[in-house]
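**Protein of interest**
===
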Amino acid sequence: MEMKQFLLETINEAGMLALDWAHRREQNEVHYKSAKDLVTDADFAVEALIKDRLQEKFPNFGFWGEESGQQKGQDGRWIVDPIDGTVSFARGFDYWSVSIAVEIEGKIEMGAVFAPALELLFYAEKGKGATRNGKAIQVSKTDRLEQVITATGFACIRSDVEPNNLPRFNRIVKEVLGFRIRGSAAVDLCSVADGSLDAFFEQNLNLYDVAAGALILEEAGGKITDFKGKEQLDPKAVMATNGSIHHDLLNLA
């Protein structure tokens, strides 16, 4: 079985398990890592399933999961967020996802994001484009700030990080058509990839939040940099756009 097929089968199985947990919310105990950072029994169960499947099929690959941490490997590593958007998931809000990326020699080569409650599966492979539910996608053509719909989040505030994302939000919100705050960076990046959003920015994320979504965005024709315009995937400073309005948003960042 080739890696792509295995990845898609694994993320589908993981997503269905997560959705089953979502339908049994009363059995899904919530635990707190800190005052504003929660994890559920479902997070642990979904990550365990993914880890078991991946390590059985690719024993020489390392693994980095949000809940179980990092393990080194010789051939590369899997980067996994079992439920990106745990707060949404725990409250019954459908904007959450399972995110799996494949990193080889320090580069993200393959990624998938599955939002089962939304019936959306995104996939990309380096140099081969991006898809949503099996159909090719492209970023929007929006090229004027006043027509932009962007998403953001405030993980930085939950973590008491200073400076935080509020000043940036306040500058940008005055110039664009609209904002969406949905709680899953992976879903937001994929929404920029398929053109339903024009941009997404946030700070103080982790690689497992954005690794798969960033590849999907880039393969759909989008652009991702830090807030100073450096073309890199820096989870602590994410500016992701359709490319056409990237410079304008950077000027406000």
